[in-house]
Amino acid sequence: MTRLSSSPAAPAVSAAVCAAIPEEGVRGLVIADLNGDSAAALATELDGTGYSLDVRDEAAVAAMVAETEAAFGQIDLFCSNAGILNLDEGDYWATSSPNDVWQRNWEVHVMAHIYAARACLPAMISRGEGYFLHTVSAAGLLTQPYTAAYATTKHAAIGFAESSLLPMAMTA
Question: How many structural domains are present in the chain?
């Protein structure tokens, strides 16, 4: 495997994933995060390239993928790992979180995977190789109190991951 793009990567879990990847012989490691300084710092540690990226912006995701391919060639592995956590507000019922919390969770936990898949999967499918890794959360399978927007959108992310696999399995 020669090239990887990961988004985002500054938080601890993502950083641990990115730190393990160079051990697998990857070159051309691109680490993207909303906090470009954190992405750059981690990339420096791992001999990669840091990239500031808002995964809620489809054009920005597509540009990051295109720039990665222009600099390093095809992307062999894309790790789609965006996540935020907002605890439910008010009375802690699912209905108490305001629309902006739900919208931001939807954009980061669901649409970010879709945008990355749109940017990466056609080339991977065309050449018959490549890995698109969704990392989601146990909250996509289980729920806990005060996390309705988080858990609901993580469930949706798993649904998208499973749905995106079916057409590829049928053509394999």
Answer: 1
CATH number for the domain that contains residue 104: 3.40.50.720
Residues written for the chain:
172
- Residues 124-134: pLDDT tens digits? 999 998 888 88
Q: Which two tokens stand for residue 132?
A: 């698109």
150, 161, 1, 165: which is closest to 77 by C-alpha? 1
What is the model's pLDDT at position 46?
A: 83
**Judging by beta carbons within 10 Å of its beta carbon (0-12, 13-18, 19+), is residue 158 exposed, middle or buried?**
middle
51, 92, 115, 150: the catalytic one is: 150
Supply the pTM of this predicted model.
0.87
- 92 has catalytic annotation: no
pLDDT recorded at residue 2: 45
